[in-house]
Amino acid sequence: MDHKYKSSAELKALAKEHMFNHYGTAISAILAVYFITAFITFFSTMFLNMKTITGVILNFLISFVISVLAGLLVSGERYLFLKISCSRPVTVSDVFYGFQMYPNKAVLIQLYISVWLYISMLPMTICSFLVQQNPKNAVLSLIYSLTVILYGVAMVIISLIYSQTFFLFHDFPDYSVSELLAMSRKLMKGSKGRLFYLMVSFLPLLLLGLLSCGIAYLWLIPYMNATFAEFFLDLIRNSQRADLVV
């Protein structure tokens, strides 16, 4: 099959077109997710002493649980932006759709992804605690820096491989979690570089957003999410369904 993928510029242009008149809804939805997640995280960890081993372990575990449960909101976000990209009417309540449609699958998908992410994060977390206890130890500081880099690389790779899972979930809701994860892996074969380039292309706008004290992110983040939804739709259009099924 001759693949004719859209360029990053074309995907962004489509995102801008489909986001027209939807920014108010998208911004409200993004803010709702942010405040819910921030509220739960803050009150779940506010009494932890991060200078103790117990505090670090509890913070790690609580953060992991919150990450897994956040799959319900991630599912809703993907659903919202897929609807926008497909020119369907949207409401702020769409961001909570993950609580309605197979919430167990949304949690299991996020559980699988979070396990890999947090395993990758573990060496960095341990080194961070050791550096706090021995701030003048140059060797520990160097090792910590290396673990940060390794985690960053692992996070990017894992995120790219499974980036399409929740989008696929809403296209193929009757598929099992393992099938959806496998489909994302197959769909991203040969496309990880394109998605990485698309993500990196937003860096200048993200840096400029800092000049607005983050206010510009209210428009930029929905625009980015819409672009990633366009990326998924472009992938699907250029893929044969039979090639994705396990």
Structural class determined from secondary elements: mainly alpha
Silhouette: globular
Largest sheet, if any?
none
- Low-confidence parts: none
Distinct helical segment count? 12
Give the amount of beta strand, in percent.
under 5%
The helix content is over 70%
Count of β-strands = 0
Span between termini: 19 Å
Order of helices and strands: HHHHHHHHHHHH
Please tell me how large the radius of gyration is.
19 Å
Q: Taking all residues together, what is the mean pLDDT?
A: 93
Structure, explained:
- It is a single chain.
- The chain starts with 7 loop residues before the first helix and ends with a helix.
- The chain contains twelve helices and no strands.
- It is mainly α and 246 residues long.
- Helix 2 runs antiparallel to helix 3, helix 2 packs antiparallel against helix 4 and helix 4 crosses helix 11.
